[in-house]
Design goal:
Radius of gyration of chain B: 24 Å
Order of helices and strands of chain A: HHHH
Strand content of chain B: under 5%
Number of helices of chain A: 4
Structural class of chain B: mainly alpha
Distance between the termini of chain A: 15 Å
Oligomer: heterodimer
Number of helices of chain B: 19
Shape of chain A: globular
Helix content of chain B: over 70%
């Protein structure tokens, strides 16, 4: 789980081009300057590549914060194994 | 029934006192009966449509819960619910528009068919409650929430009278849980509700309806006025529209709060936006977030492989639909396309603008961004207000050719009874200055309450002295 968190921090830093971004499970789009519905797709595609998973439109509905995203990643990784 | 009418005032008194004296467990019955009565006031027959929406959306929700994610039957019930709501919306709002296009095309090819455009009377609030119902169905389908089992609460969710005519479009996750915890009588709620209502009433009857007179005159005689006057009309219209719709919203939020319910906010000082993306986060928020969650994101993810172009595709389709949502007219399509273009431009120049921002003096950069955004908003509002595209283009053409004609502007002001016009402008300035203060203060209870109470009393006096009552419909009632 911690590993996923570290990896996701890197994804965020790359997508939003900001090396100082830190995230926690309660971080939401409102906390990160550039994170909106336009950049959300970039974030999700970058996450897919980093974790080698596939996230569809169904999955992103109801994602409220980073914690939800981490749970989704965990679930997708488990489904693959 | 207009919130700013005597009929509504009497209706509200009766409903509120019946609500207070009835047992807490059955208060929803009072509110539901009141809501159906309120909705049927002008045209009782349209309550049937509302009940149809309620029953089919409710039934589909319960059925959807029975099947797993991705099951074909789950999808069938989603389509049933969305199909019913969209069907009602299309038949009553867009059929006339489509038949008109068809009749124009057949006319173009000189087919000798007598095809007369179909015109039905638009049921008020239809765009709002059908969207709210569709949002609920999608929430259940996507598993964001379980279906609502209590038919009474569900019916209230769709028909709740403070919001049914023009929003704010409620979310199932925010509003339904509130109906499950029946709120009790509280003086704090009444205080908040009253202050918010007064502020909305001031915006509507003192600002919006006063500006409407000038705006209607200018937009009704575009050919007769010079560009400078047309600019004035366009600027006044922006404030009229904002005061009208946000005033309605304030009243809706205030009324709901009397009963202890919190509706979502719809505006966050839209005219201070420094780019169009920001504007849509501040303007008609309940619609823009609805479109984002239930239309934009699904469209964007359905074409995920297109990368950046998926976003462009979703943006355009979303904003054309956003335009059309406001009305079945080409002017609204153009309004939507303009917004889509601006947002696409902002998306492509996002990084570049960050660089400019660092290079240029920040005050100058912010100020010019604001000027550009506000000018764009004004131009797009021309399509929002104009009767037809020909009018809109004539107005824009004049705006960009004879904008310097100060003599024409002076003549207009003199003809509009100079002192009366200047007084209206002073009231608009008062509105702009108080807007932020009032809403911010009202949210931090206890702080500055004293000032707020005095201000509310002053506003009541202003409303009684300078308001116009029950004459002008809310702009958003037509959507």
């Amino acid at each position: 789980m911690d590993n996923n968190h570290e990896k996701l921090v890197q994804v965020f830093r790359e997508v939003f081009k900001n090396d100082t971004i830190t995230i926690s499970p309660i971080t939401t789009a409102a906390d990160i300057d550039q994170w909106d519905s336009i950049t959300h797709l970039d974030l999700i595609t970058a996450t897919e590549e980093a974790f080698n998973i596939e996230i569809n439109g169904f999955d992103v509905m109801g994602l409220k914060n980073v914690g939800d995203l981490l749970n989704l990643i965990q679930r997708k990784l488990e489904e693959q194994n | 029934m207009l919130f700013n009418s005597l009929t509504f005032f009497l209706f509200f008194i009766v409903v509120f006192f019946s609500w207070i004296v009835s047992p807490i467990r059955y208060r929803w019955v009072i509110l539901l009966a009141a809501s159906l009565f309120f909705y049927g006031w002008e045209k009782p027959v349209y309550v049937i449509l509302l009940i149809l929406t309620i029953l089919i959306t409710y039934y589909s929700g319960i059925k959807m819960d029975l099947f797993k994610k991705g099951h074909v039957k789950k999808k069938i019930f989603l389509y049933l619910a969305i199909g019913t709501n969209l069907g009602i919306l299309i038949i009553f709002k867009y059929l006339g528009f489509f038949t008109e296009i068809i009749s124009q095309i057949t006319g173009l090819f000189a087919f000798n068919t007598q095809f007369s455009p179909l015109k039905l009377i638009l049921p008020i609030g239809i765009s709002f409650y059908t969207f709210q119902s569709i949002g609920y169905s999608l929430d259940v389908y996507y598993g964001v929430r379980k279906s609502e089992k209590h038919l009474g609460y569900f019916a209230l969710f769709v028909s709740f009278f403070p919001q049914i005519l023009a929003g704010p479009i409620g979310r199932s996750t925010e509003l339904l849980p509130q109906f499950h915890n029946p709120a009790v009588f509280s003086w704090t709620n009444i205080g908040y509700g009253l202050q918010r209502f007064i502020w909305g009433l001031f915006k509507k009857v003192v600002i919006a309806d006063r500006l409407a007179v000038y705006v209607n005159d200018i937009y009704g005689n575009i050919a007769d006025y010079q560009g400078s006057v047309l600019w004035l009309g366009t600027i006044l219209y922006a404030f009229q529209l904002y005061a009208d719709f946000s005033g309605y919203t304030d009243m809706a939020i205030g009324i709901a709060r009397f009963f202890g319910y919190k509706l979502s906010e719809n505006f966050n000082f839209p005219f201070i936006s420094k780019n169009v993306t920001e504007f849509w986060r501040r303007w008609h928020i309940s619609l823009s977030t609805w479109l984002r969650d239930y239309l934009f994101v699904p469209l964007q993810f359905s074409k995920k492989k297109w990368k950046k172009w998926a976003t462009i595709y979703a943006l355009f389709l979303t904003f054309v639909i956003c335009g059309l949502w406001h009305g079945a007219k080409f002017t609204f399509v153009i309004f939507g396309v303009l917004q889509g273009l601006a947002l696409a431009y902002e998306m492509f120049t996002r990084d570049q603008r960050q660089i400019w921002r660092k290079k240029i003096n920040s005050y100058f950069y912010n100020f010019s961004s604001w000027v550009l955004t506000f000018t764009f908003t004004l131009v797009s509002f021309v399509f929002f207000r104009a009767e037809n595209t020909a009018d809109a283009f004539m107005l824009l053409q004049k705006q960009f050719t004879s904008f310097y004609d100060m003599k024409a502007l002076k003549n207009f002001i003199i003809a509009a009874e100079g002192s009366r016009f200047i007084f209206s402008l002073i009231l608009v300035c008062l509105f702009i200055v108080l807007d932020k203060f009032f809403v911010n203060t009202i949210h931090q209870q206890n702080k500055n309450q004293y000032t707020l109470n005095i201000l509310s009393s002053v506003l009541i006096v202003i409303i009684l002295l300078f308001g116009t009552f029950g004459k002008v419909d809310f702009i958003y009632f037509q959507f």
